[in-house]
Amino acid sequence: MPQTRIVIADDESLIRMNLRETLVGLGYLVVGEAGDGVSVINLARELRPDVVVMDIKMPKLDGIQAAKVLTEEKIAPVLLLTAHSDKELVERARDAGVVGYLSKPFRDSDLMPALEIARARFEEFLTLEQQVGDLKETLETRKIIERAKGMLMDSQGLKESEAFRKIQQLSMNTRKSMREVASALLLANQMEQQK
């Protein structure tokens, strides 16, 4: 099984060094380090790590703003490690899509479960997003086919089953999807109406 690839970000190099040693000791592979929010975004875009572990308080762009970008671009899950745990920061982190939040000081034994859960939640998020996209695509396809069936029923006096079968047959004959055939029929009908 390949090692989990991690990018770490903290504005203090000593903390990054300690975190790297801890992560390597736990069997993770640290593929990059950054000292500010802008750099961690650029590094993560380039390296595509499995997880980004970062502090909140960083120059240029704080960890929560960086996490929001990484989440919106679906680059990697973010685990925040921070000494700050006031309610406002936690809410900002939640709204930014952060999937893990550990307060410093933390025990090394807390890190591995937090990382693994962050990865799992991010994978679930990506899977759900894909399923939603697929469902939207299916629904849109059905709407187009229904409109094309209705148009064929009106223009050619076909029954619903006959109109569906005609679209299906055209799809097989042209080796195009039923959605493509239905869209073409609708477009041809629209052009005919405009003459």
UniProtKB/TrEMBL annotation:
Keyword Electron transport: no
SUPFAM superfamilies named in the record: CheY-like
Entry-annotated residues carrying 4-aspartylphosphate: D55
Domain of life, source organism: Bacteria
Listed GO MF terms: RNA binding
Any single biological process term in GO: phosphorelay signal transduction system
Location of the Response regulatory domain: 5-119
Keyword tags: Phosphoprotein
Chain segments annotated as coiled-coil in the UniProt record: none
Stored PANTHER family: PTHR43367, TWO-COMPONENT RESPONSE REGULATOR-LIKE APRR6-RELATED (PTHR43367:SF1)
Protein name according to UniProt: Fis family transcriptional regulator
The species this protein was found in: Herpetosiphon geysericola
Upper taxonomic lineage: Bacteria, Bacillati, Chloroflexota, Chloroflexia, Herpetosiphonales
